[in-house]
Amino acid sequence: MIGIAGTKADPVMVHFAARCVAGDVPFAVLDLMEASAAGDWRLSAPPDSADFVSGAERVRLADLTGLYIRPIYLGRTPRHVARWHGLMDGLGAWMDEARLPVVNRLGSHQHNGYKPAHYAWLSAHGLLVPPSLLSADPQRVRDFIGGGRAVVKPVCGTRATTREIRPGDLGRLARSEGPVLVQRMIEGSDVRVHVVGDAVIACRFSSTTIDYRSDREATKEILDIPAGLASLLVARTAEQGLAFAGWDFKVDQDGTYWCLECNPMPGYSFYDRVCEGAISDALIKLLSG
Amino acid sequence: MARVVAVADHAGRQASLAARLAPAFSAAGLGLEFRTHRELAAEVSVEQPPGQPPVVTPDRPLLWLSPGDAACADTPDGRFLAAETLAAARSIAFLTRSPVLNRPSAVSMCGTLPPGSARAVRGARHVDPGAVRAERFAGAWPPDARAGAAAVAAGAAAGAGAAAGAGELEVYDYATSRSSYGPASSSAGPFRYRAAGGPARLVKIRAIGDRAIATTDVTSATLDASRRVAARYQLDLATVWWLIGTDDGSRTLARVDCWEWDAGGDVTDVAEAIAAWMAERLGGPAEVCR
């Protein structure tokens, strides 16, 4: 039985559960928001056969063949914060020592949340990354933009629509309280590659907008990426301690794959629909033991 | 004179440490400047050229002493800016080529120390297996504890190599952020708990590079174990807390910290050891006033 740990407000969790239902795959829901709000748990390190999490249902962790966890916190009160903290400490300690596949363990790489370090790691590990600059110095940013079209991105992992930065935007930077991250814009199609263990599932998007995610007219297709790149991504995913990752690329007109990021908690449901459920199928295979 | 930058809450929670670092660095022949995360992010740029290592400008030796600035943002924009500042400062500390004390890693803000206290202690079982106890977590006070603390203690210790002592529990209450011995009473929890051994004293060891500083008498084995725990998490500066049995001198790991918050009378020694650590890496004079 697969454990699905998260919140029912998360469409990715709902999508995965729906795919399990469609495939007649046994699963149990560990509703982390309900458990932390009004439920109960007992968790041990090292794991114990009596360990359980009780939210919408009571789940005995020893019955699980694998765990898919997306710990998204949506509470607000100090009381709920304390309970969430206690639950996540317990689950984190339990996952560190539990001998079952987990998507993804808390001890995996975190550098996606601080992008300059992420780009450096990717670049040092065989991925071609577009040039980028983190700076609060308007002149340095002006010089970077002067070298070619560029986009501005959050430094932290917060999701935001990618947009182009132009010299006219620099006045705002001068008044800003923090640095900005700019990256050379690569023109071409977008490729999203999901790695699930050894499985590689990719799809391509072609759009006239800078961020294809905001373009409903973007064309979509399943894609076979070069074998060498696929092998590299499987290896680099595992090196980060990840069982599941979503890799974003821009493919320029020469066919060069430029790596934009590796997402350690991919919101994959949209891509799964494009890939006809192949990502969920790979997750189910991985987590079914 | 090499200029070292200490990233710290130097005007607030780490003011005492900051006040002692300055003369310690001066005595070691090193210049020292203080920056908050925000100040660091405002004056350092990071460039990532294609296919080459990143370039940090200016690239200076750092003391990575603080997990964030003190001011709490109370608006969405303020929280976003705080997250951006922290991500920028963390990237700078991660990528700086000069020596960085407690350099953040791919998996942690500080060395490789896990963010949860229990995970940090449990992870040290590989370097000191006999000193690490089993941990248990509960949303409410567990029925097995009501049935008898000794049973829980024995059960919790199973598989961890720890000796179940007097049948008592060491309980951390997430609602109050306090620890105590014995079953919880009226608190709603949640709780983290582990078996308590026999009578013990709490001992704090500062591990700084190959130095270990204790304010009370401890065995050299405990000092060595403290250095091993710090090294396990790639920490150049760590506070390792032990429970030392008053009957048999047995050693139990209680906690591992990586941020120094001025607590303790050994702050001068800590500052001097930090200065010595940096002086050695910069090839300067290693001797410090002790």
Structure description:
The complex is a heterodimer of chains A (289) and B (290). Chain A has 289 residues and is an alpha+beta fold. Chain A folds into three domains: 2-103, Rossmann fold (3-Layer(aba) Sandwich); 131-184, ATP-grasp fold, A domain (Dna Ligase, domain 1, 2-Layer Sandwich), CATH 3.30.1490; 187-287, 2-Layer Sandwich (D-amino Acid Aminotransferase, Chain A, domain 1), CATH 3.30.470.20. In chain A, 32% of the residues lie in helices and 28% in strands. In chain A, the strands form four sheets. In chain A, strands 14-13-12-15-16 form a five-stranded antiparallel beta sheet. In chain A, strands 2-1-6-7 form a four-stranded parallel beta sheet. A four-stranded antiparallel beta sheet of chain A has the order 8-11-9-10, with helices on both faces. In chain A, strand 12 and strand 13 (199-206) form a beta hairpin. Chain A is globular and about 60 Å long. Chain A starts with a strand and ends with a helix. The mean pLDDT of chain A is 93. Chain B contains eight helices and 14 strands. The longest helix of chain B is centred in the N-terminal third of the chain and has 20 residues, at 76-95. Chain B has two domains: 3-101, Glutathione synthase, substrate-binding domain superfamily, eukaryotic (Rossmann fold, 3-Layer(aba) Sandwich); 112-258, D-amino Acid Aminotransferase, Chain A, domain 1. The model of chain B is unreliable at 145-166 and 285-290 (pLDDT under 50). In chain B, strand 13 and strand 14 form a beta hairpin. In chain B, helix 1 (15-27) packs across helix 8 (267-281). The two termini of chain B are 21 Å apart. Chain B has 290 residues and is an alpha+beta fold. Chain B has helices spanning 15-27, 37-43, 76-95, 117-123, 143-147, 149-157, 220-232, 267-281, and strands at 3-7, 31-35, 45-48, 55-57, 62-64, 100-101, 135-138, 169-173, 178-181, 191-195, 200-208, 211-214, 237-245, 251-257. The chains are: A alpha+beta (289), B alpha+beta (290).
